Amino acid sequence: MDGMRASILLAAEADIDAETQKRAKEYQRRKRVINWVSSILLLIFLLAVYATGLSTTVAEALTDRWGFWGSSIGYFALLFLVAMVLRAPFDYKDDFLIEKEYGFSTQTPQGWLKDLIKGWILNFLILGIAALFTFWALQAVPRLWWLVVGLGYVVLVIVLGQLFPVLILPIFYRLKPLENHPLQEKIEQFLQKGDLRAQGIYEMAASEKTTKENAMLAGLGQTKRVILFDTLLRNRTPDEIEVVVAHEVGHSYHKHMWTLIISQSLLFLITLFLLDLIMWQIDPRFVPEKRTLTSILAVLPIMLVVFSALSFLLRPLALWISRRCERQADTFALDATGKPHALIRFWVDMARKQLSDAYPHPLIKLFYYSHPPLSERIALAERWAHSKGA
Ligand SMILES: [Zn+2]
Q1: Cut 0.85: pTM above it
Q2: Confidence band of 3 (pLDDT split at 50, 70, 90)
Q3: Residue 217 in 3-state DSSP?
Q4: Which end of the chain, N or C, is less surrounded by CB atoms within 10 Å?
Q5: Cα distance between residue 342 and residue 377, in whole Å
Q6: Ligand 1 is a single-atom ion; what residues have CB below 5 A from it?
């Protein structure tokens, strides 16, 4: 290890001090526990609705009165509403109370509630379309429904990917193109490298809700753009902003949107295929010959339980792919800017101020980390600096 690398490493380790990391672990753990409890409660509710025969009673009552559309929408709306109400107190604790306690949230309770309701409406529409399509496919193509729903998923993800920065994100945040920014010219060279237009950088008014700093690559095709939190633009040095933008451009350069869409679609397809196999064993009403809308709605709660379990088991694979993409984007940012120190400074601050756990337990990393832990990202930048002899 040469002198420079040793000094970067020591400085980074000294800055990610034990005291803030203890706080970071506690913050992350509390949020995970809340999510676990609310998920388990929801699964127990679904199991109870299925096991007591309540889902069958409701399904029969609905399909006796109404046809496909009425019964499907009615059943979905009922399940959705109960699930959201069940989750709401946990969401309040997780998104609002804890975020306030650690000094991140800048929202009022009213503002938070407004966002919650907007989120409900949006999810109701998107999940509703997905649910109706699935109910239809389960009946219309009883043996290959999982394939048809899997293909439908690809279409939905591509449409939502395109609409996200222009239609969905603006529901929650004010966005405007970044104009006359001192960095604009500097950034333009690597924007083109990443197949992004020069005007493809946007500023998002994140400070209205949080003190956290972040950036993202959003959209597909014509809507593709880099979005920077205004908190990042305000608090970071030009060098740090430059490397963060370069990281997002790296995602575009490596076409990671497509890597993620294709890999997630394949994993979703595998999940549905396994779900089909397992459902045949669980409930005789699910076999293709006996399947009606009534039986589909009656077994839906147990289908959701099995689907959740399968998704959870396959999650490490999806996260592993995502972490690989992040490492590629980090390397792109280092190559494009040649500023490992700025990147390391930003990450050290992420660990300190945003309470990111730099050294998570391997199991936590496996099931929760879409990005490599900061300790690994810092090590990557150090190796890069070392290889360049910087
Ligand atoms: Zn990234």
Answers
A1: yes
A2: very low
A3: strand
A4: N
A5: 13
A6: 326, 329
